[in-house]
Each structure stands twice: as structure tokens, then as C-alpha cells.
Protein 1
Amino acid sequence: MKYCDKCKVKVNTSQSYCPLCHQKLTGEPDLEQEFYPKNVTNIRKILPLTKKILLFITLSSIILILTINLLTYENTPYLWSLIPIGAILYFWSIVRYGILSKQNIAYRLALLTALLIIILNLIDQNFTTVEEAQGWALNYVTPLALFACNLAISFIIWIKRINYREYLIYLITIVVFSVVPVILYYTQVITILWPSIIAFSFAIFILLFIIFFYPKSIKEEIKKRLHI
Amino acid sequence: MSIKKSTDWLRLDNAAKIFPAVTNKKETNTFRVQMELTEVVDSDLLQLATNNILNRFPMFKVRLKLGLFWNYFEKNERPFKIRPLTSKVNEKIIPKENNGYLLKVFYYNNLIVVEFFHSLTDGTGALIFLKALGYEYLTLKGYEITPDNLIVTKDSVPTKDESEDSQSVYYNPHNRKHVKEKKAYMVKGTPLEIGNMGLISGTLPTNKMLELARSHNCTVTEYMSAVLIQTIYNTQIKYRGHLRENQKPVKIFIPINMRKHFPSNTFRNFAIFLKTDLVMTRDDISFDEILTHVKESFSKGLDKDELIRKISENVAFEKNLFLRTAPYFIKLIALKIGFAMIGNSLITSTISNMGIVQLPESMQPYVKNVSAAIYSGKKNPVNIAVTSYKDKFNITFTRSIKETIIEREFFRHFTSLGFEVEIVSNYVEE
Ligand SMILES: [Zn+2]
């Protein structure tokens, strides 16, 4: 084993200097390999090229659309470019949070549904010029999107029985939100009833189904997410 | 509060609640325990052994999940992958890159290394796991070894008390006074690049260490604390007591294994700390004076009432109704702010003595050594972990600074007393 005359310690290494005092070591090493792996300098992570190109195209098209919008602002004095930009961002959300995400599928569906509802409601409120058509996002899209999401998650739970517990919380969330359109109808924020009723009845149906057939799971799930 | 078959989730204990909020690349709150075998580790067998043993330790086979008021551990069904050891020591464990797990198992030559995020357990729990893993590996290797009541084997059944949150058991609302503390002296040095942690380990003869401590009428932990304080004093404070920073007390943080003081069989966190607290502005402080101070700090810190007070002080914040009912993200912000304001600035350095590692007689021929290392962060750049296995007394320094003067002077104290010291380093320097 190597030895440091100054520190009077044996050093188990094949390096030439003492880790304590940095003086030259004497003697021959015992090991062929170091006791611990050699230090490698940190390599910075670089974005893969395809991701870079896609990101570049996305950003430049957003800038291009915005530029055209602003240059022609006198002829069409509103920010129509926000609609395609919203679409592009939503597309990216689908890729990032829908396809590439490692989160469970119920979470992804619930998240994308929520985003879609928000974006379409924003478009509705800012760009619907025909008066009779105003409120389409709240009247139709919101309840029907909730209904679709509810249907999809229930279906997934039904086929993937083993891991259904993980999905329950998202299903419950969607079910709770499905009540909102009905409330909006009775407070006269929305005017069309049938989409809200469809979403609401289906949500109640699912809720009853869970309460009847998975009473323990739902209790456990709520307890674990909401324990204080 | 164990993982029941019907529930598959676990409340976080007091320590587990705090660590996720105050962990980052610099303060990783990760520590390692390692077993050096007498032969090269077979990675396939180690993977198999790890899978078997993880199933026996349900409190570690978990991932951290977000709840509305508190996070919680949920049973993790994803595969656990062991990996070859790199030069990195106690790096931040990123669950996303680790299938959600909060521990890592490495292999390298003769070494089995396990790194834990502190939320899962303390040094004692980690050593129980490492011993079980080593035992299972050697059994799979085909060696005839017996557990002799020293090892948790894969065939035994997990019990409820192994997953207990023992701090909440000994919580006493009438003895939870908060004691205000002064900031501690901070060891100076040039920071290493983030993610590079220096490790220098010295192995001394166990019996000589015990003899030395006995001759001074103290424990080995007390003796080492005194040597560390003296080293910091000699290299950084002496003759410079007029400087403001140097007037802060040197505080050594000593985790105490509570299982030795209260009946508990938990594999999860159950450690409380005590601190030495010595202002060192005089130029003529002797070793004996330091040792006397350390002994006093220990006897005060180990007083039963004081231990319960510290447990209760820790637990008090989670019993607070306002805090309890605040959504988790608000707690997170509060904890982060609190930690940024005080946090690690109340500690100069840590000595974590994980004690004697006992292995069955039949297993000992295959195990050369068992040692540990804790992380070193920005405000406490030099820390020590200690284990002893048979005749090997392992003192492992980790550091987040380039300088190794404290390590050098610390070990020279023992060589000057005629000790044989064997050094191993991961040679993180430039
Ligand atoms: Zn030296």
C-alpha cells in the first residue's frame, strides 16, 4: 500500500499524491483499480436536435403569425393571431403532457380536457362576434368535454382493473366538475340545458357506480389525498 | 401506521415531511451506507437480491405522492434498477429518473452501496436494510450463512411497528418549548462544483479507539467531537477571535439514535440531535477544556426530558391546526422560507455515529468492511459519518469544499498518538 511520510498514513490508491496534504506518496499500490470510481467532469445535458428544430419552428411560426397580425392590424383590428397561437400551444401540450408524459393516463386526460376547456372559453369570450352564437364554449364544449373525459376515464378504469385506484381521484374530480355546468344554468350564465344535463346525469351515474361497487377504494383514496 | 394490504399508503413521519421541502442540488439530504465484500459483486445477483429485499421493506418500496394537505408515500410497483457506482457521492435523488424510488443501490468492484433520501429513514434504518441486502446477496451466491437474529431476512413478515412514526408516539404537548438558537460558525473554504462531493475515509483500529476514549473518561463520539472542534479551532479560528464571524459558536450536530432511548422497532426515521456550542474567541483553549465542554453538552442533550422536548418541538409544527389545514403548497412555501432564513446556519458540522455494525459469525468471512457517508452542503461543508465493523473503525469525511486541511489535521491528531490510519479518497479535487 502507498504511504504518506508527512501525514504518516497508508493510502489505498493508485494515485500519486496524498489526498490529505497533496504530497507525493511512496510505495506501490495494492489495487489495480481505484477503491472508488474515477471522477468524471460533469457533462451538461443538451437538448436533442429534433426537439431543438421543432421548438425553433414553433417559436418562429408564433413570431411570424404575430408579426402578420400586427402589420395588418389596421384592416383587421383585433388579435386574431391568438387563436392559431393557442392552437399551437395546445398541440405542444398534447405532445408534452399527453404523449411524452410518464404520468398516468387519467391524469393526462383530465389535464388536457381542462386545458382545452380553458382555451376554447377564452376564444369564445374574446372572438365570438355573432351575438346569438356567444357562449358556445360554456353551453356546449365545457359539458360535452367533461362528459367525454368522464366516459374515457371510466372506460380505462373498466378495462385496466388492476390499477384502477390510481385513476379514481381524477374520475372523482371530473365528476365533481360535471356539476358546474348545471349550476351555471340555474344561475343563468348559460342558456342551453341538454349538454349540461347529459354531463351531469352521466357523472351521477358514475358516482353511484363507484359508491356501490368500490366503496372502500373511494374512501381510502379520499383519505390518502386529503389527510391532515 | 403501516402499509396495510387494503390501503397501500403511508403517512410521512415528521422528518419525512420536512426533507422534501428543503432539498435541492446543494442540500441533497442524501446519505449512503456501503458494504465491502471480499469478492467482486455480481450485478445480476445483486439485482435479484435487491428485488427480494425491497419486498421485505414496504416502507422503502414507495414513492412520494402529492396530497392536498400533506404528501404521502404510496406503494411503488415499478421495477427497481440497481446501477454501477459513479464518482458522485450522495447526489440529489431525482425520483423521476429512478422510477419514483427514493433510494439507490450501486455496485462497483467489491462494493455494495445504498444511498437513501433522508425522508425514508435514518442511518440505523439504512444499516438494517444494507445488512439484509448483503445477507440476501450472499445467500443467493450460495454461501451457507445464518441470520442469528441480527439480520432481517426476506422470509420474515413485515410488522406494523417497523413502519411506525415513533416521534409522534413520544410527542408530549406539555413539553415542547421552542428554544431559540444563535447562528453557528461556518467552516470556510472554496466551494467545489455543485454535484461533486469530496470523500475521504480513514480506518483506525477499533480497540485502540475505545481504549483512547476510555482513558479520557468519555465515549468515542465525544472524543471525536472534541478533536473536530479542536481542528476547526486550530485551523480557522485561533488568533483570529477578533473577527466577527469567528465569534460565533462552533456547533457540532450529533444525531442520536432514539431506538436506544425509547422502545421502538421502527425502520423509519427516529433520530434526535444534540449540539455542542462553544464560543472560541480565546487564543489558549486547550483540548481538555474542549472535551469537558463536549461531555457537558452530551449529558445535557441526552437527558430524557430534553429528548422528549426535542421530539415534541419537532412534531409541534405538524400538530398546529392552522398549518395542518393549509394546502400543501402553502406549507411548502412556509417551510422553504423558514429553512432559507435559518436552516443549516445553526450547525457548523455534523458527526453521525451509526455505531457498531454486527453481522452473524457465518457472514463475517465474506464482508470486509461496512461504512457510511453523509452529504455536505453549502453551510456545513465538512461532515463526518462513523461506523465500526470488527477491528475497523471508519471515519468518513465528506466535503463540499476543495480544502482538505480539516481532514488532514483530524487524522494527524490520531497518527501523532501512534494510531495506524488507512486512507481512501474519491479524489475529487480540481
Ligand atoms: Zn499526506
Protein 2
Amino acid sequence: MPIGSDSLAAAPQRFGAEPLAITWKQQSGLIGLSIVNFILRILTLGIYHFWGKTEVRRRIWSAIRLNGEPLEYTGTGMELFVGFLVVLFGVFLPFLLVGGVLVYAYGQQSGVVRAYYVLAYVVFFFLIGVAIHRALRYRLARTRWRGIRGALEGSSLRFAWTYLWTAVLIPFTLFWIIPWRATKLQGLLSNDMRFGNRPFRFMARSGPLYGRFAIAWIGTIVLFLAMSAGVGLSIYLVAPPAAVPGQPPTVSPGAALAIVPVIVVFYLLFGLIVAWYQAGVFNHFAAHTSYEGATFRGKATAWSLIWLVISNMLIMLVTFGLLAPVAQARAVRYMVDRLGIDGAVPVTDIMQRAEDPMRRGEGLSQVFDVDAF
Amino acid sequence: MSTPFRTIVDTYEGRFSDGRTAAGLPATVRLVSQGLEIAPGAGQVPFVWSYRDLAAATPIGRRAGDVLLSCAVTPGATLFVSDQAFVAALADKASHLTTVSQRWRFARPLLAVCALFALAVAALWVADVSPARGLAGLLPMELRRSLGRQVVRSMSQGRGTCDTPEGRAALGRLTERLAVATGGKRFDIRVLNWSLVNAFAAPGEQIVLTRGLIEQAIGPDEVAGVLAHEMGHGLELHPETAIIRVVGLSAAVELMLGGNGGALANIGLVLTQLGYSRAAEREADAHALRILETAHISLQGFAGFFKRVEDRERGSVIGEIGLLRTHPFSAERARLAEQRPAYPATPALTDDDWRALRGICGNQPMHP
Ligand SMILES: [Zn+2]
């Protein structure tokens, strides 16, 4: 090939820098896959769950396109299954067994058993942190684009420790630690993320989130007061309690029914507040995440987010969880649709990385079910 | 020549990545007889990925618009072709990539594993091998005692313990006599003021008899027979095994659902409802026969009592937690006792002691 013409034709990509665009390409057959998975899971007494989950992930990953080329999920059902077994028999069942024996030996109400319960809650909370980290690590290690693997470096114990102590502080700070905590935890994850040999960068500070959080926090309190007033008012309007001196006022069934719409409205409004805050968090985190020359841009909105959550909830409820893969795909699609990428990355400089030695798949998250998909 | 037309149809455009960097190259792909012929970049020497070694990122259906391929021989390298005609042609050449065959390949070993598992469970069941039993043997004595106390306590809820001093002394002498063949194990026996005819072994060498059982017994040999049988259960750690079996399940459910231990507290009740397996009953009977023979107590009472209770309870409401429910297979037991050679025997208790034992509930108000 004549060198001169090549350098002219490929002028914008001369040093291997390629602008990136992320898109979603809907995969057909997800509903059929859900049904087949369901049947196979029954036939295999539930064991197929892990293979079914792997099949779903392969479809979802494949729907995510960078410059038109799909992500590839290379995990296997066996890895998930073995990971699950190891955690079940190595961590969970021994814990239960010791608990059962203690209850028998000392009685349900004894101090030893109470102490054990407290210990169990603390340990389990810590393990949830470990599970989140290990699940992300496994998924990134099993994700490829153009054959190049992702990775999560860093210690899951360090992440879990931060996860635990910041969670303990949530009630003591009247929830005000939440934005700082979310930023801290996301930073621990994002800064340890790799694609090939290059790191992601996460430079967000929690400060800008506090305006939104304060509004959400005050809004929730106002909403709660309004709901209390609304419940009282609706009872009074529908059936004013007979004021018999010395008798506690009784609530008629009609009044109890009148409370229902008030509570439904409360939950919808509360959900909207949470969605509005979470959309802000998503956009803020995206805006401060970068990979090489590319920066991200979040486009989440409160309305679209709450519609996603409600519609996914309906899908799960109406089909009794049968169409969970569809809901999971919709959730991932939301993120893809609401994420923009600006700038170019030097693709020729991004080298393959050594394989992650993690041979067992995210057992903890399978047991605790903290993973969304 | 007609081949040029075919060649044009055969050639597809794709993107190839070598798996060393994240760069992608335009590539032309042809489906040749040995495999995929890939020429990355114009003017490059083409190479072939054999159909056999191909893997697809997702199983390919005929309607799929694109496919991401890799090859076992060159790990990391990928080929992406976005062309429905290519996918359809590939499905013909490499049928192992299709949805149906992939799914079947996943499901077949799983179904085999499940069948094996079912077989293994069945084999364990037939061979009467139980992990719960092994675990029971590992429990320290103090823990078994403590477990037993909990079980007895939950069984005796709302019921008094029969223990006139004379009755206790008589029961003590009977236990002492049977203890010659229990390998040094000291059994702790308690009589509950309960009209039901029943007897239970609890963990940690503890046995519960009911007032109904003592009233129903014609002579001390019958009580001795029941006691020897329950001692047999205790020696074989059957109560411990049953509890581990139930606790393993219910403790798991309890803790996972964050329960308050309600089901666990009723373990005593569970134990009274559970019958032992035929094999466990046989083991207990073997001990009972040995204990009675060593203690020179006649087997007539042992065999007769279970048989008599069975005859009495036959036709009564099933579901009552009587002796029959917890100790089935009486006929077999009677036959077993009759087959043993006769030996010199003396009554299990003197007349005075037997009278004292029958009066052991004298300290209790009589319930119907
Ligand atoms: Zn028995």
C-alpha cells in the first residue's frame, strides 16, 4: 500500500486516536430466552440459574456497542456456579450452623446468641461490600471489546471496610453522609477500573451534590409531614370519628380505604424525589469520569429514571420475575442511552492486559443477590 | 466461467482486531471450505480460521444481523461482521454456533449432573449413610447434654414431672440394672405427667417416659423393654442426628428470613412427631435385645408391649402422636424377640419397686 495515500486517507486517525460513540442495539429473542431459562431452571432443580444468567449477560453485553462493535461477555455458568458453591459451603452454611448450635446450646434469648446475631449482621454487611467489589471485578475481567479485557484492581477488603463504616454513620448523620459516601465508594471503584492497560479516572467531589441532596432531604420531610396531615384529613373527611368522651376514636373501614391513595401518592412523590437526586448523581459522576482522551456525559432525568423503575417493577410483578432478563436489559439500555462520550481514545496504544487470576465468579454477590443483572 | 459471480457473493466486509491493542482493521472475509478466510487490511496475506475452532460471543440465530467471532487458535483476536447474509451462511457451515445447538450443549451436562445427583441421593438413602449422623458424632458431650435439656424442656411445657422419692429410687434401680450393657453411658430418665402412651430419646443420653406408658405397662419388664429400646436410640445418637437434620434446614430458613426462632423453639415438638427410619429402629432394637439379655431381663415384655400398643391403637385416629407413630414396625420387633434363644431371667423390678414406679406420679395432680 502506498504510504502517501494511506496517511491522507486516515488523517483524523493518524496516531490511532479514535472518537468513541456508545449505542444500544436491541437484541431479539430475549423473551424466548427468559422462558427457556425458566424451564431449564425447573428441570435442573435451579442449577441452570447460573448458566441462564450467563446467557442473558452475553445478550446484554452484546447489545452494548462502541463504534458499532459489541462488547463481549466471556464468563461461564460454571464459574458462577462454583463461586456460589464456595461461598455457600465455605461462608454461609458454617455461619448458619454455628448459629443453630448456639441457639440450641444457650437458648434463643441468651446473650451469646444475641451477640452472635450482632456479629452476623456486621460481618454480612462487610461481606456485601466485598461482594459488590468482587462482582464488578469479575464482570470487568470477563468483558472484552475488540478482544481487549477490562479489569478492576485494588482491594475488595478496603472497599468493604469503607462501605461498612460509612453505612454505620448514615443514621448518626441523619443521612447527610450519603452524597459523600456515594462519591467515596464510586471513586474507589472507578479509579481502579481498567480497560486494557489504561485506567479510568474519577475526579468527582461530593460538594456539588449537596444542593440537590438538601432539597431532596427537606422535600422528603415536607412530604412526610404532608402525608401525615393528608391521612388525618382523609380519615376526618370520609368518616369523622365520633367524639365520645373517654373512648378512643375508631377508624371505619371506609376511612382506612381512603388512606390508600394518600400513601400511593406519597410513595410516587418520594420515588420522584429519589429519582431526581439519583439522576443528578449519575450525571455528576459521569461528567467527572474519563478514560484516556474520552470524557463522559450523563443525560439522566428524574422522569425517565422513575419511569424505568416503575415499568421494570411492573414487568417483574406481572410476569412473576419470569421476564427479569428483559427488565435487566432495559436498565442497562437506560444507562447506555443516557451516557454520551466525547473525545477520542488512542486505540493503538491501549494494550491487552494479563488475565485476571480470578477463576471463580462472584460467589458472594450470587448468595446475597446484590447484583442487578 | 461461472465462479466470479460466486466469489463476489462469498465475500463480506468485517472488522478484525488482533487482541494485542484496541485498534480495529477493516477486513474482507470469505467462507471457504476449511473455514473463514480473513484478510485484515487491504493487501495483507489472508489466513484461515477453521469452522471447528470458531466461537461466537452470543449464539447465532438466523435472524441475527451481526456476529462477533473469535478463534481458539488465536486467543484475543476477534472478527465482527455486521451482515445478515454472512450470519445465515455461517450458521450452515458452523452449526455448533447456533442457538439451538449451544443451548443443548449447555443443558445436556447439567441434566446429566442432576441425574447423577439424584442417583447419589438415592444411593445414600438406600445405604443409610447420612452426613447428619457423622456430624452428630462430632458434637461434644456438653453440647449434646445442653441440647437434650432444651428438647426435654420444650416437650414438658405445661406438664409436670413425676418424681415421688420412692418412684425415683425404683426407676434408678431399673436404670442401674440396664446400664450394665450401655458401655458406661449413664442415662437420665424423666417421667412426664402426660396421659399419652409414649417414650422419647433426647440428645445427651436423656429419655422421657410418659405417665400413660407406665400405666399401660402390665409389668416392669415392659417398661424395661421400652427403656432399653430408647437407650438404643440414644447410643446410636439418633435424636442428635434428627435434630441436625431439622435444624440444618430450619435454621437456614430462619436466619435467611430473619425470623425470631419460633420454629427452632418448637424443635421438641418436631422430634415427637418424627418417626425414625426402619433402619434406625432396627439399630435401636439390636441394642435393646443386647441390653435386656445382659441384664437378664425377659424379652417377653419388650416384644409384648409394642405389639399390644399397636393392637390397641389400630383403628384409632391416625395422627395422634402415640408410640406407634414414633416407633413403627412392632410386628417385626415381636418376631425378632421370639427368634432369640431363651435364657434365665428375673423380673426387671421387685414387686415393691414396681408399685413405687407406678406411683411415681403421686406428686402430680391427675389429668384425664
Ligand atoms: Zn424407636
